[in-house]
Model the fold of this input.
Amino acid sequence: RAKRRKRLLTSSLAPMRSGLRRLAVPAALTAAATTALGAGRLVASQSGHVAAARLEADASPAIDADSAAASPSGERRPPPAWVAHRHPSILIKYFDARGVMEVSRLALALGGVAFAETRWPLDVSKMEDGLAVAAPEYCAAVDSGELDANLGRGPVVVVGGETVLAQSKAIERFFARMLGLMGEDELSAAAVDAFTEHVRDLKEKYQRARGAGGAERERALADFYGQTLPDFLQQLEKTVAPGGHVVGGRLSLADVTLYQTFTDYFDDPAKAAAAMLGCPRLLAAFDAVESHPRVKQYMAGRKQTRL
Done:
């Protein structure tokens, strides 16, 4: 069982290497905790189980029961029970961290949608004692089968109390469609998708620089912030439409992804921000999210985590 947990956690929590290095954890612990932390940026938590983020409801697109009940072939079928509601209940199950769920949280905040969370504590200092000691609630969730939809990993999202969604990117796109953040048509949605994949490529370049060993790491990061990132952003700038947003002159998942990446992802956010100074369209899209009243409210009240 311990080997199965380690294997599942490795695939669930791989991108966490960047956050763990900032904890100044001894190398042996870092390697073990990287296995346990994975997808995004986790935190060693002292608290709690379920936290709720509640923002004022606002005029965001409701799910249409009639359209939801029609299959692509035109055949009618009963909609899921939650479609009758303006928004379904949403329960996010993930570690006590921003991690790979922060884009989804920001999208929900932007839409004024309330959600609840189960946050599993992870004590990095106890990783040598095993996951049962360092992350007992996560291990209990794995053993209970509540994470089966994501192959025994986090995150999962329970929608309407009955449907369990898996894979952080699929979850982001589900919320984006639900909230009208995937553009006005399928072509716009494809453009939103493409931009988020460009950002994923950028993150991979950054992780390769961070993964360099010894003195090479310092040089690789200097090259990333000084050359790779500015060059990449100049190319990315060319994909952004005029009008203050990445796609179609309206807020979308693309804008939210850009904002979250340059707010949370890089170890040196000042250098990352400086690289964007020559990209007025990207800056406008970033500012459109940062200045939104609901995003301001969410950011002011979100739980402060180390990762």
The chain is about 50% helix and 10% strand. Strands lie at 50-53, 90-95, 115-120, 156-159, 163-166. The CA atoms of residues 81 and 269 lie 43 Å apart. Confidence is low (pLDDT under 50) at residues 10-75.
